[in-house]
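Hello K.,

You asked for the raw outputs rather than the summary table, so here they are, unedited. I folded two proteins back to back in the same session to keep the settings identical. This is the first:
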Amino acid sequence: MKPEQINTKQESTTHFGFEQVAVNDKVRKVAGVFDSVADQYDVMNDLMSLGVHRIWKRVAIEYCGLHSGHRVLDLAAGTGDLTKQQAKQVGSTGQVISSDINCNMLANGRRRLVDLGIIGNVDYAQANAEFLPFPDHHFNCVTIAFGLRNVTNKPAALAEMYRVLKPGGRLVVLEFSEVTLPPLKSFYDFYSFKILPTLGKVIANDADSYRYLAESIRMHPDQETLKTMIQEVGFERCDYTNMSAGIVAIHRGYKL
């Protein structure tokens, strides 16, 4: 299992990729990464995953179990891939809040969804997942896709997700994880640290941000560690599903 740094009042540093930085600096540095990549984010997602990220997200949506009238919080919503599908499923009587800590990502997502005609049941909130500005017991479902690994204090964020969920609500976390097929690991490392930064340089004119994204994946808790973290803040019936040989995993937990 990978150790996950849990920030306490005594700790002054945390990881930013493979680099140790001051805790207070991580939010600023992560913001810089996503400010840089926001305009090419969708293009890079398709290139990096050869389009497979769309399948991963479709499965995550199925795990949400949404119905008409549900209230959903989509954290680290980015350009709105999950929000788009959630809005369709909850219908005109439901509500989706598309939330991201980065204003450029949130603005790009809002423009994209409005252009698609998805309006009326979607609201937008710039928020830090560690300090959610929503009442207790409010949402039927909370999702976070490819965003948890960028959060400084993951246990604090998971506890906030638990707080804002209604009893019976569920958490769905879609995130890069640990490859489960040993023969694939060496190729995946080569792709992550050699190919990915090169793509970032060519497409987004930013190799460093995509190097950080590769490093952040390696620093993220593995499947079992994350499951334990989710359980420790109060979630029950926790499980996870590996996809693409563990390149990504979907974790679920319920507030009972």
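The second followed immediately with the same parameters:
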Amino acid sequence: MTDIIKELQDYRYLSWTKTRKSSGTAGSFLKAYDDTGDRKKYYKLSDYDPVRGIVGHECVNEIIVQRLLSFFGFEHLEYRLIHALVNIDGKDLETRLCESEDYKKKDESKIPLEDYYLINRTEGESPFDFCKRMDWEEYIYGMLVIDYLVLNRDRHGANIEVLRSQKERTVRLAPLFDHGLSLLCRCRSTDDLKSFDVMEDRPVQAFIGINSTLENLRLVPRDFISNLPALDQTEVKRIVEGTEEIIGRLHVDKIVEMISERWKNLGNLCNN
């Protein structure tokens, strides 16, 4: 697939900045940008440790989740996973990075949904009810379904953005982005993978709803779920195609199991 570039590319010219994990755990993500072309491009790496180097696989998760979003027809930011040579603190590292382009139109500004909600909410209005009032409920329903299927741990109020255009007098939600802290993002060893319970309802950060992707499905109408295209295991295997060369067969098989079993459970919840 064209969203994975296998040939090694030289990105040592990029200058990386460190951003603490929003989840509060140890480590950091590295981000960079390139604004020399017609359209500004953004780059990010998986979890970086100053001693061990790049130890995570969040960039691979971005590609898997974006393919899942495409399957369902949900609007999302487009990523490319690039086999790259980068330089961090004077040391050359071979890794995979994510590349994306600026999704704002020229006259648009952006603001985190959390801030926009605080400015414009009515008294006692929840973030979910606010989004419904703004006619954003279909977007939110799709987001909640995806976040359940991949166990997204990090859908805080700044990981959903509002784009505003004074010229066009429009307000819209940005395409869904930032899905790296999902799937098996905490698994770093064979033992971690084997022991991981793909159906466990783990605590997450969620601006919409509560800290449970399972319980947040209660906000999604049954008709919305039942009208989604059927996701069988053959399709899930197609979605993860090409990633086994990067993260290994055992890891990929566990991801297939996770998405497939959670999809089945989603259907059971809808039927009941």
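DSSP finds nine helices and 13 strands in the chain.

Happy to rerun anything if the numbers look odd on your end.

Regards,
P.
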